[in-house]
Amino acid sequence: MGVTQFPLLGKLAVGENIFPKHVSNATRSNLLNKTLRLLFMSSHTESSFADNFVEFEQHVAKLFHKGGWTVETPKPNQPGYDLAIRKGDMVAAVQVKWLRNNVIAPNLLQFANFLDSQEGQKFNYGFFVTTRGYGGPARALIRAWGEDTKIHCGVAQENNIDWIGIDPPPVKPDNEHPNGNGVKQPPKVYFGVFTCKGGVGKTTVSAHLAGAFALQGFNVALVDLDPEQNLQKLVGDGVFVPNPKGVGTSIQVFDGKDWHEDAARDCKIVICDCSPALERNPKELIEKLDYCIIPTTLNPLGINKHGKVIEGTVKEIRTINKKAHLFVLVNNFKQPSTNHLRILKKAFFDAYKEISKTDDKFHCIDPEEVCIRTSDLLYYWGIHLLENPDNLPSELAFNLVGGRCHPREDFINLSDYIETKAALGSLRNGSS
Questions:
Q1: Are residues 196 and 317 part of one domain?
Q2: For residue 201, what are the contacts with CB-CB under 8 A and spacing of at least 6?
Q3: Can you give the CATH number for the domain in which 50 is found?
């Protein structure tokens, strides 16, 4: 694309001043950036996150979520908007427009008409976010709305939204929000998932326990403390979980080195995929843990090998954290015969008899009550990375097969077990 196609670019290329003398340098810089952005907007190429509407909608939701907005999904087939977002005392409707071409003026007028309707008047603002750019008539319409417009238009990029024309108004800082005013946020609930040996499913349990809580309406932060960073490889930046009843939730993934509570202010639950070497986990995080989960297997070799290792892990944790409830969870459970199950269960509980006598917050979970069953969905979790390495989707093994999904059922059972058996009442009522 040559500058001769665009007279304004030609002036810029030769250094010609296009602004009146009274315009300040700061204003000139701002106007120049906006002008260049407008000129090049139509030349944007679609990115991997814009391959289809579903992926694009989830991407837009993530961008707003990262910006501190609470994202809600409307009821199915809700006309007028695709997402509702909240921050403090501001509520906005978001129209997500997946297009192969630029937005046209009728697209914007339709959204404007919705915001003028009775349903639309409950929103302070409307955000129109698309995949590409805005055609000439659409840009003219945006300019005609002026500075006091209720509608703000943008193009979603990989890590942000480029706003066209007037930027959205600033949102009050958190300490000015109705639930702020110096009021401390409710404490987060911290989980740590440890290993007794490689391959028992530490990362799988971390990710899917997060998924179970997300399905129950909680925003979850996943903190990857394992040097191999398998969690980040498999889940990426996180997963957005839509809810047809109205409120969507998210799972955000953080590198352990970059973790800070302020980065996940709306997350009630924090799940740490811990390093196999306890000393490599930040002490301040181990101290915060309310619940620790140690996956193991229910087979003769597993019981024999893992028992002493788990006992040592529990003792190490207790040198740092005395308050956390600790759970031994049977993973990859395959239903044995009645006689074999009786023998295995006795050996399983015997292996941890001494710990149970001295530690009243140590729980050996009966696999007949709660366990994670073996399944192809969990065994092949991560196949999506191999199928599409150039566009890595974020997925959990919660897909229905024949109308059932054992992983989803099992991890929801696990979350319920922890909540009911280990006094996790603080999760629902916001108390510590």
A1: yes
A2: 295, 331, 332, 372, 378
A3: 3.40.1350.10
pLDDT for 316 equals: 92
Domain identity same for 230 and 325: yes
What is the DSSP secondary-structure string of 259-313?
Answer: --GGGGTT-SEEEEE--SSGGGS-HHHHHH-SEEEEEE--SHHHHHHHHHHHHHH
Residue 416's CB is within 10 A of a number of other CB atoms, namely 14
The answer to whether position 10 is within a domain reads: no
Query: In Å, how far are 16, 17, 205, 334, 363 from 357, measured between CA atoms?
Result: 83, 82, 27, 29, 11
Distance CA 341, CA 258 (A): 44
39 assigned to some structural domain = no
Q: Both 203 and 257 in a single domain?
A: yes
273-292 average pLDDT score? 92
Query: What range does the domain containing 225 cover?
Result: 189-429
Mean pLDDT over the full length of the chain: 80
The DSSP string of 332-367 is SB----HHHHHHHHHHHHHHTHHHHHH-TTEEE--T
CA atoms within 13 A on the CB side of 406: 14
With a cut of 60, say whether residue 44 has pLDDT above it.
Answer: no
Strands 291-296 and 325-330, bridge-based pairing: parallel
**23 falls within a domain:** no
What's the token pair of residue 66?
């990262």
Q: Are residues 141 and 195 in the same domain?
A: no
- Same domain, yes or no: 255 and 402: yes
19 lies in a domain? no
Tell me the CATH number at 230.
Answer: 3.40.50.300
Specify the amino acid at residue 381: W
Q: In this structure, are residues 321 and 282 in contact, taking their beta carbons and an 8 Å threshold?
A: no
**How crowded is the C-beta side of 280, counted as CA atoms within 13 Å?**
14
Q: Looking at the structure, do residues 153 and 199 belong to the same domain, yes or no?
A: no
What torsion, rounded to 10 degrees, do the Cα atoms 201, 203, 207, 212 define? 30
Q: What is the pTM of this model?
A: 0.61
Q: How far apart are CA 339 and CA 346, in angstroms?
A: 11
d(CA 414, CA 119): 40
User: What's the pLDDT tens digit per position in 197-207?
Assistant: 777 889 999 99
Name the residue among 218, 222, 195, 190 with its Cα closest to residue 206.
222
What dihedral angle (degrees, nearest 10) is formed by the CA atoms of 170, 175, 180, 183?
170
371 and 241, same structural domain?
A: yes
Let me know whether 411 and 335 are in one domain.
Answer: yes
Question: What is the rounded distance in angstroms from the CA atom of residue 314 to the CA atom of residue 326?
Answer: 8
For 255-279, the pLDDT digits (tens) are 888 788 877 777 889 999 999 888 8
Domain count, the chain: 2
